[in-house]
Amino acid sequence: MKKKxxxxxxxxxxxxxxxxxxxxxxxxxxxxxxxxxxxxxKTIASKSMPAYIRKNVLxxxxxxxxxxxxxxxxxxxxxxxxxxxHNSWVIEDIRxxxxxxxNKARTVTSDIRRTSEIDPEExxxxxxxxxxxxxxxxxxxxxxLWQIYHKNR
Length: 153
Known about the structure:
Layout: H1 10-20, H2 24-34, H3 36-40, H4 42-47, E1 48-54, E2 57-62, H5 65-73, H6 75-85, E3 93-98, H7 102-115, H8 120-130, H9 136-152
Parallel strand pairs: 2-3
Antiparallel strand pairs: 1-2
């Protein structure tokens, strides 16, 4: 067991957590989203965003069909930039998806939030699990985080 002085920030260990669970592709997507303006350039990043990686193909959300056509014309250059961002990643192709309009996304999200209620039994079960956290502030913060997650899922 590690001593309290040996504790490390979660942010420094996220890659190990993802790697241990075979979530490397999610980690790659996260890092690419995080650095998208640097990889693609600010102009392209303002009109697009990496969506996911599946079978070595990077899928990118694009704001509209005009930008989709523009990016398709620059596909080779963008693919080189993505490959150059992290040499060990195997991205063989790039494909495009039209991004859902913001109004539709907001409507779906607000409908989900209205219908999501926390099951009292689930909450009691989680609170029993959280009871093992010695620090009261941490325990309360964990419970609040769990509640927010379940209200917004």
